[in-house]
Amino acid sequence: MSNPRNVYTFEDYKCFPDPVFTVERECLEPCPAPIVVDNGSFQCRAGWASGVSQLDQPRLVFRSVAARSRGAARNDAHVGNDIPNLEPLRWTFKSAFDRNLVVNFDIQELIFDYVFTHLGISTQGHVDHPVVISEPPCNPLHCRQMMSELLFECYGVPRVAYGVDSLFSFYYNSVSDGADLPSTGLVVSSGYHCSHVLPFINGRLDALNCKRVNLGGGQATAYLQRLLQLKYPANQTAITLSRMEELLHQHSYVALDYQHGKPALLEFCR
Length: 270
What we know:
Largest sheet: 5 strands, mixed
Number of domains: 3
Shape: globular
CATH superfamily of the largest domain: ATPase, nucleotide binding domain
Strand order of the largest sheet: 3-2-1-9-10
Protein name: Actin-related 5
Order of helices and strands: EEEEEEEEHEHEHEEEEHHEE
Subcellular location: Nucleus
Number of strands: 16
Low-confidence stretches: 264-270
Pfam family, one: Actin
Family: Belongs to the actin family.
Number of helices: 5
Strand content: 15-25%
GO biological process, one term: regulation of macromolecule metabolic process
């Protein structure tokens, strides 16, 4: 007797507006705590570097997009989790990214407004907290200059620190394994728009030998959608990008040992 197959239903996940948090006393005293922003091309994560939330999940996790119809005012834009259902408004999405680089700083400003407002920053016209923000490997100087200008001139932050999220992860996992500092390793970072291969030698990133591959979760999602639409042409309207992202993130596997076919769940970086 054959084993019954598992049948999964689409969750059709819908977003709900994020609450406006209040700043804990630990984040203000004895000095303002840094705000950490993982500025990803698929998702943005933001929270505090200290206080109660230090060991918890990020306070905010939302899609790095803004929905604004043509000719609408800036105040009419919906950012992140303010967009309840992504699929009907996908054609109006505007992203701050081109591939993995921030180039549209009007949208980036909307994302920062969303982050600071929902974290409970109530100061008018400036942010008194230092900011730690992620950036892609070998980020062009012009992109960093424009990001710094936005943070310093528009928000008046006192200090800004930049870092590569995959190297943060490499450092954290190396130290958690018992090593004092990471020495040598190879980091393979699979993002939404592209992937990076980063050699880390003797405690430093070998930037000259970094490689970027223009293949990531976005291309895999579009390819999966195209394959399923060709196989099931009668159900093309039901095969949406949102559902393909759910299939990719929840039910896709990769073989760690390809020769023996041992699968393990692959979670694409968001």
